[in-house]
Input
Amino acid sequence: MLIAAFAILVSCRGEQGRPGEDGLDGISFLGSVYEIEGDFLPENDFRLYFEFPASADVYESDIVLVYILWEQAEGNNNQMMDVWRLLPQTVLLDEGILQYNFDYTFADVQIFLEGTLDFNDLLPAEALDQVFRIVVFPADFVLKNNLNIYDYDMMMKSLRITPEAIHKIDIGQVREIPEIN
Output
């Protein structure tokens, strides 16, 4: 009887967990980073649209964060370093308020402008060639590791994502934005 009970328990399986990659310390998680570059134009309603590739496993329970390349600064070793800021980011201009913001689903990300000024009057530095990094990772990873999501460099180190692992996609002048029903 004990052998039969043991056989039943051993043969039972629960739901399979989310796929992941074994970490250096045995923790399994899956994180992805996509870098996109594009222009905020009247033709695209001042929005950049990014659809996750079919090969990407993005779940409704995942966290998606978007960072903007804010500037480049000289580091301690006299080399230029990228400065990334978590969206939303608000800029106070003489003409009014400009905010870079985003929303997402498990299928896509939209980065858009909000504010009190006429976006047609933006300077090229405010609207053109904007670079963003979209970071996707399981929500429980942040909670378990008590991560500071505002610190981009720390996030990349925690996710063990190297610059070579970032998927760079030039979305350019996206003119077709899907209709929202």
In short: DSSP finds four helices and eleven strands in the chain. Residues 85 and 151 are 8 Å apart (CA to CA).
